[in-house]
Design goal:
5 strands, globular, 3 helices, 17% helix, two-stranded antiparallel ribbon, 118 residues
């Protein structure tokens, strides 16, 4: 008996990365410790908060973002990504703002889902 072919789900985040190159990714410093994030990928944002390196700039781009925004991207820290990254939802207001900033069209409602890019 043959198995049914696996369903391939379209993931717009794998072709985007705009949020990773638009916003500061800051979080409570203890989260970085609990996730095992190396110091080399962190910057101090305040006495109590860390941020991912590269995101605390006038033109932010996360150090972990690999690839070209709007083309093909991945995250070198995906398994250890902090809560702000885990909370991203494709198609939400922040997504729309980031995509607009990079000249990308807004996602259709059918494309909006929790980002699971890697």
């Amino acid at each position: 008996m043959m198995n049914a072919p696996a369903t391939v789900t379209f993931n717009p985040c794998l072709d985007c990365g705009a949020c990773c190159a638009s916003f500061r990714v800051s979080f409570y410093w203890a989260e970085a410790v609990s996730l095992g994030l190396p110091d080399t990928v962190l910057e101090q944002a305040s006495p109590w908060h860390a941020c991912l390196r590269g995101t605390n700039q006038p033109a932010p781009r996360c150090h972990a973002l690999q690839g070209e925004v709007g083309q093909s991207v991945s995250c070198s820290l995906y398994a250890q990504r902090p809560s702000p990254c885990r909370e991203v939802r494709a198609g939400d207001a922040q997504c729309r703002k980031a995509r607009q900033r990079h000249g990308l069209p807004a996602l259709a409602a059918a494309e909006a889902f929790r980002c699971e890019s890697g």
